[in-house]
Amino acid sequence: MQVPARFEYERASSVPHALALLERYGPESRVIAGGHSLIPMMKLRLARPDVLIDINGLEELSFLGVEDDVLVIGALVRHAQFLADPAVGRYFPIFHDAERVIADPVVRNRGTVGGSLCQADPSEDLSAAFAAVRATAVIQGPGGVREVPIRRFHRGPYETAVEPGELLVRLRVPIRPGAASAYEKVERRAGDWPVAAAGAQLRLDGGVIAEAGIGLTAVGAEHFAAPEAEEYLAGKAPGAEAFAEAGRIAAANCAPRADQRGPAAYKRHLAGELVRRALTRAAGRAAEGTAQGAGDRTGDRRGEG
Amino acid sequence: MQITVTVNGQPYTGDVEPRLLLVHFLRDGLGLTGTHWGCDTSNCGACVVHVDGTPVKSCTALAVMCDGHEVTTVEGLERDGDLDAVQKGFAECHGLQCGFCTPGMMLTARWLLDRDPDPDEARIREAVSGQLCRCTGYENIVRAVRWAARHEAARAGAGTEARAGTGDGAAGGTREGTGP
Ligand SMILES: Cc1cc2nc3c(=O)[nH]c(=O)nc-3n(C[C@H](O)[C@H](O)[C@H](O)COP(=O)(O)OP(=O)(O)OC[C@H]3O[C@@H](n4cnc5c(N)ncnc54)[C@H](O)[C@@H]3O)c2cc1C
Ligand code: FES
Ligand code: FES
């Protein structure tokens, strides 16, 4: 029977209250959101916080919507809510693709977007998806609010830019007219963590790629991104050859490690192939007109499109 | 720490350690052993209960986090001595063998039917994809949920009955679709 070590429990009633509790209890206190990463770690005694600060009551962190051409995602938005939201599906099918294959529906009822990013597991799916769309993390602390580009948010395995005493409060993702996106993952069985996964966003302008965003997870890509492949694509015409080359570049620049999910060479192969597939699917969506700002089409609800 | 949790419509107030998991609060504290405790690692779904109407793996939730909330366990599915349609479906369609996964399966099925009264096979399989059955197999579990959907539609009126019928066809003809 796995039981966490003893701890004290406090329930925050607002963001300032949560920050005051973090300040009062210091570095041995820990925020709990969905608890679906933290509770398992506490049960295995890999984490032993003295105090848990429950932020589940903070409705101000559950906001999800579009404000001035920016998709705003509160840190406490559950995976299930993120997956079901029509605006998210319309503007960022990449999140829809990713959420459909993160854990299972019951876990998705509980786990949060903010918790996933703060957990900073090297195989976290959303880290790659947010890297691909170049999101901004909004962090609040005793000194106020600051913004950190997502590609500077993750500092290493299980390490983020959120300092002790601070909270991740929301994510902001700019909606870029004409951009389309997709996410591709290979897992050993339904609901499992990725063996490897890639996300891509393409913005086309006059028949060429104006900007590409590529995210990678579980393959040791720094900051969950593939900047060399993105640079290669800029200014190129979208197409099979360019996408395959971008995949090769991304694969050459990541650093997968062998583990129970597979040998390094296989993961490197997957990195390249999944980048190619994600780019191809994103380009297909751009052509179909399911790109951002392309009218009221809600896109494919279940991803068959 | 003192908490009040409404379980199956009845408020319970008690003193618990913050580290007490919801599954143990229900089983050991309240004697509600219908909630099963399996993998202990949020993978098998034997421990699924509803918290405020939503299925949650109770081995990965703290009892203190449910203070002021409503929990429904398998014991709460039955109403006034009448089994829920999902429970009847599992009995009718041989949806269980050893019964270990069954409470969790039924609670997730109930939630699915509350949101989608006419789910096709793919929807049902996706809904329970975080729950493992190691002996019955999923075929009969899917049939049991379809049975419940059909019977609830029939009870709701003739119009919806017809819809339940076409639903089966659209799902690629789950065989029991032509049944009662
Ligand atoms: C069975 C299972 C399968 C899974 N499969 C996948 C998968 O396939 N892909 C995938 O990507 N993930 C998977 N996950 C992980 C899951 O998506 C997330 O890691 C989990 O939901 C974390 O979110 P949470 O809200 O539960 O975080 P918690 O466990 O509550 O917190 C995680 C960490 O983040 C910190 N934290 C949380 N919120 C904040 C905040 N607002 N500000 C600052 N710090 C914060 C906590 O202190 C803690 O250190 C799986 C999890 C389970 C249990
Ligand atoms: S015991 Fe909770 S998921 Fe297995
Ligand atoms: S009935 Fe035995 S595990 Fe499902």
From TrEMBL, chain A:
The keyword Ribonucleoprotein does not apply. Keywords: FAD, Flavoprotein, Oxidoreductase. Residues 282-305 are annotated as: Disordered. It comes from the Bacteria. GO terms for molecular function: FAD binding; oxidoreductase activity. SUPFAM superfamilies: CO dehydrogenase flavoprotein C-terminal domain-like, FAD-binding/transporter-associated domain-like. Gene3D superfamilies: 3.30.465.10, CO dehydrogenase flavoprotein, C-terminal domain, Uridine Diphospho-n-acetylenolpyruvylglucosamine Reductase, domain 2. Pfam families: CO_deh_flav_C, FAD_binding_5. It comes from Planobispora longispora. Residues 282-295 have a biased composition (Low complexity). This is Carbon monoxide dehydrogenase medium subunit.
